[in-house]
Write a structure and sequence with these properties.
Length: 242
């Protein structure tokens, strides 16, 4: 059966993001969200999930921003003991450290009582050639599907490598779109995506929220996404597809 999943990334990033995601669950088309376990808002986010009865919660793995859960990483962090934005480009990266940190993030959510139903990642780090095998391994071991990623390589060796790395992977949906983002996050773009993928199993990534100083550079855009995700025309189109 075809599904249209609107997954709100970054649940737990800030109060503004949390409030915005809840708003879109109740008043818009959002029907899934991905939880970050590495932020200072974790405990209040867990309370929010249960209090507001948020369904379809995924784990939004974070290796690119802020502070890790586990101490004593030797290759994941910068000199300030923070994650590095382009961690997948580090030459000396210890993939065992990566796995251990990912598992700790997942188990933190599970131990808090959250029923995780899929896995994805902050800044799409799970889609990178250097790290995708680690994510596939953890996904397989915990029997949790990953956010879909497609092979965009053209070189035969890279195509073969992608196949080898992902042949045992289980994915959350058949299709995934990251096109509803930043300048492309418009009502017309979203309606186009819905019409183009009608009848197919699709996850659309979104980042709704209310403005908050903790949102970083993608701040006012979150409110713009929120308004579109709660637009009557969008809601009607989505309801017609479900």
């Amino acid at each position: 059966m075809a599904r249209v999943i609107f997954n709100a990334d970054d649940l737990g990033l800030s109060k503004g993001v949390n409030e915005g995601i809840v708003h879109c669950y109740k008043n818009g088309v959002v029907n899934s969200a991905s939880l970050m376990t590495t932020t200072v808002h974790f405990e209040e986010t867990i309370e929010l999930i249960f209090d507001k009865q948020l369904e379809n919660i995924g784990l939004h793995f974070n290796l690119t921003e802020g502070i890790p859960l586990l101490p004593n990483h030797k290759t994941l962090l910068n000199s300030d003991k923070q994650f590095q934005r382009k961690i997948h480009e580090l030459g000396n990266l210890d993939l065992k450290e990566v796995y251990n940190e990912l598992e700790a993030q997942l188990l933190k959510a599970v131990d808090a009582g959250v029923k995780i139903n899929h896995l994805d990642s902050h800044h799409h780090i799970h889609m990178t050639a250097k790290l995708r095998k680690v994510f596939v391994k953890l996904s397989k071991e915990y029997n949790l599907p990953l956010r879909r990623f497609n092979n965009t390589a053209r070189h035969p060796i890279k195509v073969w490598s992608f196949y080898q790395d992902t042949k045992v992977a289980k994915f959350f949906t058949k299709d995934f779109s990251a096109d509803f983002y930043d300048d492309q996050a418009t009502k017309d773009k979203l309606l186009f995506l819905l019409n183009n993928y009608k009848g197919r199993d699709l996850e659309i990534m979104c980042h709704p929220g209310f403005k908050d100083d903790e949102n970083g550079i993608y701040n006012h855009q979150r409110e713009e996404e929120l308004q579109i995700l709660c637009n009557d025309e969008v809601i009607q189109q989505v309801n017609a597809m479900r």
